Amino acid sequence: MTDTGLDYLSPTRRQFVVTVTGLAATMAAAPALAQSSPAAMGAAIFKVTRGATVKAGKVKLDVPPLSENGNAVAMGVAVDSPMSTTDYVKAIHVFTEKNPQPNVISIQLGPRAGVASIQTRIRLADTQTVVAIAEMSDGSFWQDSGDVVVTLGACLEDNL
Fold first, then answer.
1. Is the Cβ–Cβ distance between 146 and 130 less than 8 Å?
2. pTM over 0.70
3. Cα within 13 Å of Cα(145), Cβ side
4. Cα-flanking dihedrals φ and ψ of residue 120, to 5°?
């Protein structure tokens, strides 16, 4: 056989079987990897807070109780903070319990932000709880949560 430099175009039977088996295993594992749960959300929150206690208060999460379409759910988070050089919000994190990735958004802030408030739209895979956590300059964490009923979910890989 002459060396044409195109050997990669005609793989051996063994290379073909290994490649197809690898692809099949990856595809079989994909739905399991894409599913989230309250436990996955808890792990994501633990990663951000590094195990610190998260207290209720100071944070106001504004999400609608009902959303007809999970592709664009309006959301707002406001944190009660003077935003001074010694007392300010360092970050706002939003988590969901049923999205493929529980940490939906993380925004870094500082005292020059002036106000600790954000407005955006998020995708929600299903009816679920949304949690907003504010990380303060003193190292404390504060939270608020809200339940959203979603009639038409987003983020669903199975619908493709």
1. yes
2. yes
3. 13
4. -160, -175
